[in-house]
Amino acid sequence: AQSVTQLDSQVPVFEEAPVELRCNYSSSVSVYLFWYVQYPNQGLQLLLKYLSGSTLVKGINGFEAEFNKSQTSFHLRKPSVHISDTAEYFCAVSGHPAGGNEKLTFGTGTRLTIIP
Amino acid sequence: EPEVTQTPSHQVTQMGQEVILRCVPISNHLYFYWYRQILGQKVEFLVSFYNNEISEKSEIFDDQFSVERPDGSNFTLKIRSTKLEDSAMYFCASSEETEGTDTQYFGPGTRLTVL
């Protein structure tokens, strides 16, 4: 079984400042890692994912995340945020599929608020 | 760009009534999922579906819930007798069969309100 911890429920950041949203996971097997974004009144949109290979992954809208196996972390970063980045961000994990695509286990989410 | 669609966007029902939530997954996808998000809580897995049968279900997915792929395009979630605690946003997702990809694409959700 897997679990995901997002310690920060809310993160306020000034516009054009950098941001880091933290995500830690727990799993007894190898995992795939994801960040999804949920804009107000919308569904979940994939920001980026780590499957294998380079531990630094780049996603849409200028976001990137780094997989750190020793620290079981997958923190999301952006060097300069915009008002349009205001949203809820969810970290998720799935176990390596054994003959099929496995379910996602989500964290509780981090609400990113950009201050003008 | 292909996307997952869900109808209705908002469903209001009385406790004890049956509801059917509908989803149209991305056309070449073969794995289908339902998740739900109770207001203020995390997104929780309900059920996954592949090759016309349930591949995995959570503890939440009890006998009151069922899923069906009635034709080549729709994927439905039925709640037989709704309870107040079923009020939530329900998300449908789909993914390709390609092993290792494991990227699930989500629909916009159906907000279910049980009165």
Report what the structure shows:
The complex is a heterodimer of chains A (116) and B (115). Chain A is 0% helix and 53% strand. Chain A is built from no helices and 12 strands. Chain A is globular. Chain B is an all-beta fold. Chain B has strands at residues 5-7, 10-13, 19-24, 31-37, 43-50, 53-57, 65-68, 75-79, 88-95, 105-106, 110-114. In chain B, strands 2, 4, 5, 6, 9, 10 and 11 form a 7-stranded mixed beta sheet that branches. Chain B has a 4-stranded antiparallel beta sheet with strand order 1-3-8-7, with no helix packed on it. In chain B, a hairpin with a 6-residue loop joins β7 (65-68) and β8. The radius of gyration of chain B is 13 Å and the shape is globular. The mean pLDDT of chain B is 92. At the A-B interface, β5, β6, β10 and β11 of A face β4, β5, β9 and β10 of B.
Nutshell version of this structure?
The complex is a heterodimer of chains A (116) and B (115). Chain A is an all-beta fold and 116 residues long.
Furnish the topology, listing elements before pairings.
The complex is a heterodimer of chains A (about 120) and B (about 120).
Chain A: E1 2-5, E2 10-14, E3 19-21, E4 24-27, E5 31-38, E6 44-50, E7 56-58, E8 64-68, E9 73-78, E10 87-95, E11 105-106, E12 110-115
Parallel strand pairs in A: 2-12
Antiparallel strand pairs in A: 1-4, 3-9, 5-6, 5-10, 7-8, 8-9, 10-11, 10-12
Chain B: E1 5-7, E2 10-13, E3 19-24, E4 31-37, E5 43-50, E6 53-57, E7 65-68, E8 75-79, E9 88-95, E10 105-106, E11 110-114
Parallel strand pairs in B: 2-11
Antiparallel strand pairs in B: 1-3, 3-8, 4-5, 4-9, 5-6, 7-8, 9-10, 9-11
